[in-house]
Design goal:
Largest sheet: 2 strands, antiparallel
Number of helices: 5
Distance between the termini: 41 Å
Radius of gyration: 17 Å
Helix content: over 70%
Order of helices and strands: HHHEEHH
Shape: globular
Oligomer: single chain
Strand order of the largest sheet: 1-2
């Protein structure tokens, strides 16, 4: 069984690779803005799952229209924006914390999403499908199916071990 030519283990690896790349991006960006190292993310490990989930959402929404840049932009923007809203709302309900707040921007919806961020997600979707994902999918494609499954299972086990500890820490902070 595959989705858009990728096996489930490969999708899991995409999630973990993009979660790691998101952690690198977010941590470096915030660190540069604050002038000191800031380890961003909800988990203890170097993953920001919203980026992994967002990348997978963008792929699922945009791969079917990959030949049309305008549709990649629109579908990627829609997928990432929907995920961002649902995640922001859910995290606030569960932990009584806002992990981001766009309420200072015009055209925001409850501070969870805003037009400028959504437009950025659309642009990022184009960059991702044209430049980043070909490299990432090339790395994943180099693995045999057994190696991809083993790596996906190992990373899933580490993620599953980190998640309850991180959830407990977030609930204690709330």
């Amino acid at each position: 069984m595959t989705w858009f030519g990728y096996a489930p283990a490969q999708w899991a690896l995409f999630f973990f690779l993009y979660s790691f790349l998101g952690w690198v991006w977010e941590s470096c960006y915030v660190s540069l803005r604050q002038g000191r190292w800031v380890d961003r993310g909800f988990l203890n490990g170097p993953l920001v799952p919203i980026y992994g989930s967002g990348a997978v959402a963008v792929l699922l929404f945009a791969l079917p229209v990959a030949a049309n840049p305008l549709l990649v932009f629109l579908m990627g923007m829609a997928g990432a924006t929907l995920l961002e809203y649902v995640t922001g709302w859910t995290m606030e309900r569960l932990f009584h914390l806002r992990y981001w707040d766009y309420s200072m921007y015009r055209f925001n919806l409850n501070g969870y999403i805003c037009l400028p961020a959504s437009l950025c997600w659309g642009a990022f979707s184009l960059v991702m499908l044209r430049f980043i994902h070909p490299v990432v999918s090339g790395w994943v494609a180099m693995l045999s199916p057994a190696a991809a499954l083993t790596a996906a299972l190992a990373l899933s086990a580490l993620f599953a071990a980190d998640l309850p500890v991180s959830l407990q820490k977030a609930q204690a902070a709330a």
